[in-house]
């Protein structure tokens, strides 16, 4: 039988690191409630959201270029730039899927947008990484990113995970699945792969 951690309340959004990426922005982790609170995102200067989860869709559309009609949903832009990875919280992710998530997060921090009206959110503000509860998939991805982006501060993946657990206020009783071991293994595989890539350049 799978062991389940007790539910322990945590903030909707947690500041994990600042001075991240070339623009030195702040990096947050959150769950569904934090990710869908667009007023709080604006208050915190968050302009970019990376959704780690599959089957968790948040409608940010405030400017529908294609309005809803019979059999079709509205489509357009919203107050944030939104990226999605689609990880499951446990077994089932392809071996390199978390590595792909790393590249998406890295790209979200460095991407240059064209000067077109179809890219209205141009400000390089702070960034939120979230999943359903903000305690496993997002923790694994952010820990991987910090380990590779700030190796002097986080020379090992374990040290990065420990920092994220503390900043996210995750209780020790739930550490065995925050993040789940399969995601820690995927993050270590990604870190090892990135090291091989770096040595080959």
Your description of this structure?
The chain is an alpha/beta fold and 201 residues long. It has a single domain, classed as Protein tyrosine phosphatase superfamily (Protein-Tyrosine Phosphatase, Chain A, Alpha-Beta Complex). Helices cover 34% and strands 20% of the residues. The protein has helices at 32-35, 38-43, 97-110, 137-149, 157-167, 181-200; strands at residues 13-20, 25-30, 46-53, 63-66, 75-77, 81-87, 126-130. It has a five-stranded mixed sheet.
Uncertain stretches: none
- How many strands, what sense, and barrel or not for the largest sheet? 5 strands, mixed
**Average pLDDT score:** 94
Tally the structural domains. 1
Briefly say what this structure is.
The protein is an alpha/beta fold. It is 34% helix and 20% strand.
Keywords:
five-stranded mixed sheet; globular; Protein-Tyrosine Phosphatase, Chain A; alpha/beta; single chain
Fold blueprint:
Blueprint: E1 13-20, E2 25-30, H1 32-35, H2 38-43, E3 46-53, E4 63-66, E5 75-77, E6 81-87, H3 97-110, E7 126-130, H4 137-149, H5 157-167, H6 181-200
Parallel strand pairs: 2-7, 3-6, 3-7
Antiparallel strand pairs: 1-2, 4-5
